[in-house]
């Protein structure tokens, strides 16, 4: 920006002029030239409207996120393309791109230097409305259909219709029990639809609240000064300052652009190639011209000044959003696993039902025609099928994900899709950027070296004050020639930061600065030594080379403001990494303010100070200058780069501290305990990175840190790999065998890495079966964020990084612990739900049907009571398991491998069916037949009788007593399931270690209302006389309540013993087959 606050032409760093790297030497004084990421010295976003999912064509503040959204970028782009074709006629009338800048400003009544006034803004807000798009129309009819027929709704409805048919017209005579069963199925169907509607409404509220958590600020010029404003408050005519990393909050016409200004329009066009921004129109088509920036597109380099020409529904995105369909929805990985499981058991029960029908048709119908009638066959098959399929599972999954969404919101974590949480629960490696992620990104200059002496900022300020007063004997030369004043000038002028006009009245440390954290630190230093505004009035900017991923320095050509138009004298000012710039310095500004040759002794001292500061975790920035002339050739960029390669004058060096976040050591310790390796990947100097890594706890013992020499070329793996520090240039030299060794290290610091190398690191770990999480906040982090299994951006990061990430941490990096924990918890609780539902809900309900058909025994559990267990008692309890808190050892287990560790595996099936299920089924049969034995009906009286009993047994008496036995079977199952619910709460911990009450960290009081609900259901259907006669139930003797309770307690204690053995012998047989 020049002194009027406008961007000027910039020099783009040409790929052919990149700094050539050379192999690092062991000598500490070797000055390496390396490619580097912008991570250490990057211009990053200071705001701007941020769209989490651009495919929805909605800006950040108005997006709605769904737990079911599965990004399908290519499909969405094709939709947008079709919509653009439909809307081409509407866009053809737009002419903002064809107008001259003066005419554009005249029509919008705005001055690019002054911006809009407060009165103009108020009038335009009233005229155009806020910068938001109308929400997409919701298909209420489609939603209602989904509520009723989604999940297992269609199965319940079909079952209800079939049972109705069994009642009438097939019933002869019609059985009231069938009518009651059909009514229950329809009632459950309606209840499920109501629950789905409530769940959708609840989820929408949670996700909508998450959707408004990101800031949506952008930089505008209003009332003659730069200020930060909400993107919602933009109006046509606003002057918007656009910087690298920003996403455009509205449609703008560029009026000033830097030479390297480029925009990514992939979301609109699908083209991966960025587009150069221009001031003049390049195409007649509004969508294709390069002087229009459209909402939702990214500025990937350079800077621009634009006039807002459209907001809200009037933007190109706004017009397209009205024409595109809603985003496609898909299933999360866990939903797919559940569907796979349900399909497996549905196939199994279908086969069982088919076998029953074949047996009936081929054998029973002929040999025992009075045993099972057609209506009874339909009811039995339908009941078995409905009971065997766990209807509570989809509800439990949705509830779990909604609970997690609430927790994420409370912890200020933005998940674009909750499948992100599922993935995070499996993460085994986290690669973290340093600046702004592990550190506070609040940089402060703590050391200054100039004129052969070290100073603190306070001492330098005092010296400047003495020089200005003229009372110091040190003031032996003109102030402008003083070395401290020269540092102040370079720090203030070779700086892309800008003080926010609204905070200029505050102390320097509290003022808001729009710019990179490094620029902020240097700008505060310069302001503390003298007025930056005065400096920028005295000089004007001619050219600029900004920081990017291909250099580690910034160049500005400045000339005196009073120099006439024909003058060509300029000063090349440069700041950057010492290991790049020190080789280019030939002279030094000494303590007398004179330019003298740089001696080897001075060079050695500078190297020593640089290394000392780096070892203290400080970022070191070198400041240099060179007299030159303004570029005059056609290739001005190359001309200035050539000038900056040699003949520089060393002016000074500053050390900047960016302290680690307070919570980072604890976070690293917890993640390590969870068997998650956390590495640092940064563009900073190697010694600086290592020092910060030690402070953060990423390197636990600096004495045991390996170097590249520890990685053998032949691939022989020696002792356990602990710690290693590598630089970007060293990574280039690694072969496959060395990568194999490197990926086994527990603690790694990657320094001086480029975006390409960050991407390579992610892919190398992924190729070795690691689930990789990547955290970052800069433009240069975007490729690796996108490539990682889960990309995690900081809320303070650039728009591009936030766009590329799957999850955004809005407050603290410590929130990642909660995210990992609850990602694991979703998986854990779903396993618990399945283990709880299967024993009674399928296994113990199937065998009464099988024994009835195959062995001629009356059905020990009536079809009606099967449905009651499945859809009421078990379903309610299963939902409460979704509210279980994390087990104490959850973050002590290794992460699961989603490629191998399935939600439902043979261990879980064995436990549910052949441990709990077998015990429950056997004891329920035992209780029912023991009761019959006490009533004078031995088991042999019914075995293989098919309803034809011996003459001394009364059939009506047997049928009456069997109704009581069926109720006893029902009560036994329900009571034992209450204890199974308590046992299933934990996978390895004792109930005493994870108490369900009186401990805030572990309690789940909802279990007990669910238990009470189950008991109430039993009393309703077994103890109300009117219902007894209708559905064929009877009162249960009191002893048949207490004995199942004793059995249930025994089951709980047996499971406690199993868990004790698992904890006591973690490598034993029980541990190996544990679910």
UniProtKB/TrEMBL annotation:
Residues 1-55 are annotated as: Disordered. It is a multi-pass membrane protein. Keywords: ATP-binding, Cell membrane, Membrane, Nucleotide-binding, Translocase, Transmembrane, Transmembrane helix. It holds the Pfam family Cation_ATPase_N. It is found in: Cell membrane. Residues 1-29 have a biased composition (Basic and acidic residues). Residues 95-168 form the Cation-transporting P-type ATPase N-terminal domain. One of its GO terms (cellular component) is plasma membrane. GO terms for molecular function: ATP binding; ATP hydrolysis activity; P-type sodium:potassium-exchanging transporter activity. GO terms for biological process: intracellular potassium ion homeostasis; intracellular sodium ion homeostasis; potassium ion import across plasma membrane; proton transmembrane transport; sodium ion export across plasma membrane. The chain crosses the membrane at residues 140-167, 179-198, 338-363, 375-408, 834-857, 863-883, 904-932, 967-984, 1005-1026, 1038-1054. Its main location: membrane. PANTHER family: CATION TRANSPORTING ATPASE, SODIUM/POTASSIUM-TRANSPORTING ATPASE SUBUNIT ALPHA. This is Calcium ATPase. The lineage of its organism: Eukaryota, Fungi, Dikarya, Ascomycota, Pezizomycotina.
């Amino acid at each position: 920006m020049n002194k009027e606050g406008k961007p000027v032409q910039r020099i783009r760093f040409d790929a052919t002029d990149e700094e050539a790297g050379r192999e690092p030497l062991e000598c500490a004084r070797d000055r390496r030239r390396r490619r580097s990421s912008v991570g250490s010295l990057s211009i990053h976003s200071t705001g701007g409207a941020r769209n989490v999912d651009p495919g929805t064509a909605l800006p950040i503040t108005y997006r709605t996120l769904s737990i079911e959204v599965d990004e399908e970028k290519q499909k969405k782009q094709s939709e947008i393309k079709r919509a653009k074709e439909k809307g081409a006629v509407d866009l053809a009338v737009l002419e903002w791109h064809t107008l001259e800048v003066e005419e554009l400003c005249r029509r919008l009544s705005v001055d690019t230097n002054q911006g809009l006034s407060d009165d103009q803004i108020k009038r335009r807000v009233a005229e155009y409305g806020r910068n938001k798009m109308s929400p997409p129309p919701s298909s209420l009819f489609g939603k209602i259909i989904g509520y009723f027929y989604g999940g297992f709704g269609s199965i319940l409805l079909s079952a209800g219709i079939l049972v109705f048919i069994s009642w009438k017209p097939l019933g002869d005579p019609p059985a009231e029990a069938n009518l009651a069963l059909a009514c229950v199925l329809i009632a459950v169907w309606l209840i499920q639809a109501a629950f789905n509607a409530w769940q959708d409404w609840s989820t929408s509220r949670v996700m909508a609240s998450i959707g408004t958590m990101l800031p949506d600020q952008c930089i505008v010029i209003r009332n003659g000064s730069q200020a930060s404003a909400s993107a919602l408050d933009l109006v046509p005519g606003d002057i918007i300052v656009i910087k690298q990393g920003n996403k455009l909050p509205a449609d703008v016409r560029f009026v000033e652009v830097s030479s390297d200004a480029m925009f990514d329009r992939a979301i609109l066009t699908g083209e991966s190639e960025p587009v150069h921004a221009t001031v003049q129109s390049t195409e007649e088509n509004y969508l294709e011209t390069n002087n229009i920036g459209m909402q939702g597109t990214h500025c990937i380099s350079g800077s621009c000044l634009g006039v807002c020409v459209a907001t809200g529904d009037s933007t190109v995105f706004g017009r397209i959003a009205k024409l595109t369909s809603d985003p496609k929805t898909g299933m999360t990985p866990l939903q797919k696993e559940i569907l796979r499981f349900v399909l497996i058991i549905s196939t199994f029960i279908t086969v069982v039902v088919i076998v029953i029908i074949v047996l009936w048709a081929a054998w029973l119908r002929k040999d025992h025609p009075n045993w099972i009638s057609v209506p009874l066959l339909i009811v039995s098959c339908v009941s078995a099928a409905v009971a065997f399929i766990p209807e509570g599972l989809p509800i439990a999954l949705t509830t779990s994900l909604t609970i997690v969404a609430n927790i994420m919101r409370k912890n200020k974590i933005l998940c674009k899709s909750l499948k992100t949480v599922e993935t995070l629960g499996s993460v085994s490696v986290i690669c973290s950027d340093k600046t702004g992620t592990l550190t506070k990104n609040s940089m402060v200059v703590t050391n200054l070296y100039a004129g052969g002496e070290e100073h603190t900022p306070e001492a330098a300020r005092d010296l400047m004050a003495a020089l200005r007063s003229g009372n110091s004997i040190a003031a032996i030369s003109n102030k402008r020639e003083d070395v401290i004043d020269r540092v102040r000038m370079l720090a203030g002028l070779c700086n892309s930061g800008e003080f926010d006009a609204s905070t200029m009245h505050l102390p320097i440390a509290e003022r808001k600065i729009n710019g990179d954290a490094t620029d902020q630190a240097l700008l505060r230093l310069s302001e503390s030594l003298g007025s930056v505004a005065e400096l920028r009035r005295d000089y004007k900017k001619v050219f600029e080379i900004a920081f990017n991923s291909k250099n580690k320095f910034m160049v500005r050509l400045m000339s005196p403001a009073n120099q006439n138009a024909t003058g060509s004298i300029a000063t090349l000012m440069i700041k950057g990494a010492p290991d790049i710039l020190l080789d280019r310095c030939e002279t030094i500004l000494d303590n007398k303010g004179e330019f003298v040759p740089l001696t080897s002794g001075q060079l050695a001292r500078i190297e020593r100070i640089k290394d000392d500061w780096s070892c203290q975790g400080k970022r070191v920035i070198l400041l240099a200058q060179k007299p030159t002339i303004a570029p005059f050739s056609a290739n001005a960029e190359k001309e200035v780069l050539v000038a900056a390669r040699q003949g520089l004058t060393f002016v000074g060096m500053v050390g900047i501290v960016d302290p680690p976040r307070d919570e980072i050591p604890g976070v690293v310790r917890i993640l390590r305990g969870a068997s998650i390796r956390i590495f640092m990947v940064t563009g900073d100097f190697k010694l600086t990175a290592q020092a910060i890594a030690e402070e953060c706890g990423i390197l636990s013992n600096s004495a045991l840190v390996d170097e590249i020499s520890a990685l053998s070329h032949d691939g022989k793996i020696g002792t356990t790999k602990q710690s290693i520090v590598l630089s970007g240039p060293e990574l280039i030299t690694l072969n496959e065998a060395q990568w194999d060794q490197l990926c086994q290290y527990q603690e790694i610091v990657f320094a001086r890495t480029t975006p390409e190398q960050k991407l390579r690191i992610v892919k190398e770990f992924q190729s070795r079966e690691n689930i990789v999480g990547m955290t970052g906040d800069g433009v240069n982090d975007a490729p690796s964020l996108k490539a990682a299994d889960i990309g995690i951006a900081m809320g303070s990061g650039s728009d591009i990084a936030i766009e590329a990430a799957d999850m955004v941490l809005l407050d603290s990096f410590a929130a990642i612990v909660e995210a990992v924990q609850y990602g694991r918890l979703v998986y854990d609780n779903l396993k618990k739900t399945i283990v709880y539902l299967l024993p009674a809900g399928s296994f113990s309900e199937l065998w009464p049907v099988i024994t009835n058909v195959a062995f001629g025994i009356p059905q020990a559990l009536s079809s009606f009571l099967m449905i009651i267990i499945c859809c009421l008692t078990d379903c309610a309890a299963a939902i409460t398991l979704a509210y279980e808190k994390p087990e104490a050892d959850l973050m002590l287990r290794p992460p699961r491998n989603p490629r191998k560790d399935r939600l439902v595996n043979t261990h879980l099936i064995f436990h549910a069916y052949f441990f709990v299920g077998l015990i429950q089924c056997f004891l329920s049969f035992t209780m029912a037949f023991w009761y019959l034995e006490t009533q004078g009906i031995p088991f042999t009286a019914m075995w293989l009788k098919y309803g034809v009993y011996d003459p001394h047994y009364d059939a009506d008496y047997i049928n009456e007593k069997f109704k009581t036995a069926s109720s006893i079977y029902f009560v036994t199952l329900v009571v034992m399931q209450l204890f199974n619910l308590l046992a299933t709460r934990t996978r390895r911990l004792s109930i005493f270690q994870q108490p369900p009450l009186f401990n805030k960290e572990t309690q789940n009081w909802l279990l007990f209302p669910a238990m009470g609900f189950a008991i109430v259901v039993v009393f309703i259907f077994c103890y109300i006389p009117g219902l007894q006669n209708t559905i064929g139930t009877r009162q249960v003797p009191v002893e048949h309540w207490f004995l199942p309770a004793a059995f249930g307690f025994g089951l709980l204690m047996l499971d406690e013993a199993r868990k004790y053995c698992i904890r006591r012998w973690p490598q034993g047989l029980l541990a190996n087959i544990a679910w």
